[in-house]
Specification:
Immunoglobulin-like, 2 domains, 6-stranded mixed beta sheet, 8 helices, 26% helix, 35% strand, XRE family transcriptional regulator
């Protein structure tokens, strides 16, 4: 998670605002200030990432006198996102030309802004389905398998839940799926695979969010456990670069497995954690893709509120 520094009293509001709307130099300056790093130390960290950038260039970047444009400079910006513990693509996207983005269609990676907007949409859709807090259920185990297809797309996922009711009357679960940028929730399919059936489904095209009721067919008493399994068929977006789950309440074991098509294997994979979708990423750990099964996984013995995920790079 994000490490404390001697400048931990620097407000994060300025950084959050800058990451949402830019411009690039303001976001970079706020991120460096929030980390409490002098430019010499930033340059040192970049050199350890194999990127050479002068202190003068860094100063120009954060003043807005120059913008990174060359391939080596853009590689430095991506390294800065990791060094400054920022969300992936948070600085790079601020350098994109608005005209080029509009002509190219939707971006290929989620932005900070899209995550915030999706969170607001999710709250609205869950309210429409009458789902509040945890729905009277505690998660004892959550095992998830994500499939990445031959086009490097999020093809689908399957979730196996073990829950326990902490109040009488719990009879459903509301599943959430956040498609990648450019996805079409209207073309996604919800599959009730075991011990449940599909109820109401709500979709939001702009954010790619889908929420679906999974009905148990029985009302649980407090203390009773229940197992169910469902899937989401997606495959409607472009290149996928990560998958993450957000947890609002503590719980039991969580396991995430990402399986890649043999025709589309990533160059590198790593796990990460966040306090929230808008928070800097931490807990980075490299994951090796298994040879025969083309997959990586992580296991959390105990779920804690926050975000856990796996990200990967394509050649």
């Amino acid at each position: 998670m994000r490490h404390a520094t001697e400048h931990a009293d620097v407000p994060t509001a300025e950084l959050d605002t800058a990451l949402r709307g830019g411009p690039f130099h303001v976001a970079l300056r706020a991120a460096i200030a929030a980390r409490g790093l002098p430019l010499q130390r930033v340059q040192h960290h970049l050199s350890r990432h194999g990127v050479k950038v002068g202190v003068t260039s860094l100063s120009y970047w954060q003043q807005g006198a120059r913008r990174p444009q060359r391939p080596e400079s853009l590689r430095a910006v991506r390294a800065l996102e990791e060094i400054l513990q920022l969300p992936d693509e948070s600085l790079i996207r601020l350098l994109a030309d608005p005209g080029r983005q509009a002509s190219a269609g939707r971006p290929s990676a989620r932005s900070y802004r899209s995550l915030v907007e999706a969170s607001d949409v999710l709250s609205r859709l869950q309210t429409e389905l009458g789902w509040f807090l945890d729905g009277g259920l505690q998660t004892l185990g959550h095992h998830e398998r994500v499939r990445i297809g031959a086009r490097r797309e999020l093809a689908g996922r399957e979730s196996h839940h073990i829950v326990r009711a902490h109040r009488d009357g719990a009879d459903r679960f509301v599943a959430v799926h956040h498609g990648d940028p450019g996805s079409s929730p209207g073309e996604m399919a919800v599959l009730a695979l075991e011990n449940c059936r599909t109820g109401r489904v709500r979709r939001d095209q702009d954010t790619g969010v889908l929420v679906a009721e999974l009905l148990f067919g029985t009302r649980l008493r407090a203390g009773e456990t229940f197992l169910f399994r469902y899937g989401i068929e997606d495959g409607t977006a472009g290149v996928c670069r990560e998958y993450a789950d957000r947890f609002g309440f503590p719980g039991g074991q969580y396991a995430l497995q990402v399986s890649f098509d043999a025709a589309a294997l990533p160059a590198r994979c790593h796990r990460f954690t966040q306090h929230s979708p808008a928070a800097p990423r931490g807990g980075r750990q490299e994951l090796a893709v298994s040879g025969p099964h083309h997959s990586v996984h992580l296991v959390e013995p105990r779920i804690r509120p926050g975000v856990v995920g796996i990200a990967w790079d394509w050649e």
